[in-house]
Amino acid sequence: MIKNFKVLLVYPNLTMVNLLPTNISILSAYLKDKGFQVSLFDTTLYRNSRKTQDEIRAEYLQVREVDLSKYGVFYKDTNVFDDFKKKVKEYQPDLIAVNAVEDTYKLGVLLLKCVEKFNIPNIMGGIYPTFSPEEVIKEDCIDMICIGEGEEALVELCEKMAKNEDYSLVKNIWVKHNDKIIKNSLRPLIDLNTLLYADFSIFEKERFYRPMQGKIFKMVPIEIDRGCLYNCSFCAAPTLRKFYRKLELGNYFRKKRIEKVINEVLYHKEKYGADYIYFNCETFLSMTEDELYEFSKLYRKIGLPFWCQTRIETITEKKIKLLEEMNCNRMSIGLEHGNEEFRKKLLNKHFLNEDVLKAFNILKKSSIPVTVNNMIGFPDETRELVFDTINLNRRINADSISVYIFTPYRGIPLREVCLKKGYMDNHSSTATLIYDTVLNMPQLSREEILGLMRTFCLYVKLPESEFYKIRLAERTDEKGNKMFQELRNIYYKQYF
Does 307 have pLDDT greater than 80? Predict the structure, then answer.
């Protein structure tokens, strides 16, 4: 029975966000390991937005321009909903399983609505159903939701469905049953060292190609931990830690053994021909120097270039030297904000600007290019505070600069601040970290946030004598757009 049971995994994704996801790939591995048939519908290559995130970031000078078509990566020219209906009709799955984050939830719902007539049971999981279960389960087109991790829960659900057994009491899953909603309790967190390797074979070959500051690599992500040790107020990790701790179901922050990570890299290198690794980890250098030494000793034998992200507090000369020896190709560091007091009180990040400068003095001596991650549009932020961030970026002079718009996702502590201050209501839809702001603040308007977003890199790199021109370029009228293009051309020639 199990071998005839078909699961259609659905990955509603933002257009051309082309980094392979580990979550749904691990679910596929677990289902296949138990003998289930698995197929995937992935929306990544459908143009569902006027501009992609990478197109906007390239326009705003945060990343270098690339042409993915040279690697056979093109947009699909068919309708995503027509294709989904065709997929369901031809594959005839026994279960449709959708993975959704807040930015892709609406697309996931629309996909399920367009196949309601087939009367196929479905389930939606991911971080959005985990933090908004009551809202999601109320959708008429959704039959079940998975809260928390899904590896064991989805397999158990499919086993019971395949055997025609009662599946209404599977832990981690809420089920609509006889006009009622059965809200099952959660199971303990999974041991990451028992995880199967992610199954990326469900994705089209075009999905492996990922731009990295002007170059394109066949990139595979490797999950080395889950969660984070830190307590940033714009992140959901602290909420998840408290959530599981309160229920006594384990520590949400977990790490894989170094040997397991190395074996996983070797596996994906051989199976998929990966030539670049992204270590999927919030703070890569949270390892001790001894742990990193052991990691580097084993990884040097592999030698693939890789990208990782870390925090200011974790930078030491010894760690950076080890990363160089491992062939670290790029590092991302979260600065977020340039004002110490604001960063500490609102964002719960406690390093000093002096620490930032010391860390970047170390990095400047290395061969590793660094991308600095910043955010603007926080609750109660002013234009002057945004320029504190700009000015600190000017001092550290990183290779590339990322700037995002603060987005009050469900599950993050700062969302409650925004609600209490009346900057948004609980039904506000997020607009992702690139496209727009959902906050309505008297001291920093939407137009100002968007203008500063597109000119942020110009303010960081160009001389102060050009600031009056950049201020004009913040505007999206004819004069502003013309000035922005002139300054953008200058920037591109000088810095890219």
Answer: yes
* 219 phi and psi angles, rounded to 5 deg: -110, 140
Longest dimension (CA), the chain: 73
Residue 233: what are its φ and ψ, rounded to 5°?
-80, -10
Find all residues with CB under 8 Å of 81, minimum gap 6, and list them. 110, 111, 114
223 and 254, same domain (yes or no): yes
The Cα 86–Cα 150 span in angstroms is 27
pLDDT in tens, 13-59: 999 998 999 999 999 999 999 999 999 999 999 998 778 899 999 99
Record the pTM: 0.96
The DSSP letter of residue 70 is G
| Cα 57–chain centre separation | 15
Flag whether 482 is in a domain. no
Asked if 239 contacts 411 with a C-beta cutoff of 8 angstroms, the reply is yes
- Identify the DSSP state of 426: T
Judge if 290 and 427 occupy the same domain.
yes
Assigned domain for 427 exists? yes
Q: Is residue 471 domain-resident? A: no
- Residue-wise pLDDT for 397-447, tens only, equals 899 999 999 999 999 999 999 999 999 998 887 778 898 999 999 999 999
Structural domain range at position 244: 205-461
